[in-house]
Amino acid sequence: MSVARESGDRAQQQREKARHMTEAAERTTDPEQRRRLQEKARKLQEQCDQQGGMGGMGGGSIRPPK
Questions:
Q1: Residues in the chain with pLDDT < 50?
Q2: % the chain with pLDDT above 70
Q3: Smallest Cα–Cα separation from 47: which of 1, 3, 11?
Q4: Would you call 24 exposed, middle or buried from its count of C-beta atoms within 10 A (0-12, 13-18, 19+)?
């Protein structure tokens, strides 16, 4: 497997993890826990975006609409 492919796979896994964190934040009733999960998810998504893995393929924002 090429380095680019491995990097893309890693970025996709991080995006998936961020999505799961966002979903967990939506389910929790504790406002502080929700804030922490959303912040972790946001930081993870930013790391993915900075690494540029997978470009625009399925890399939509994980932030919920306001």
A1: 54-59
A2: 71
A3: 11
A4: middle
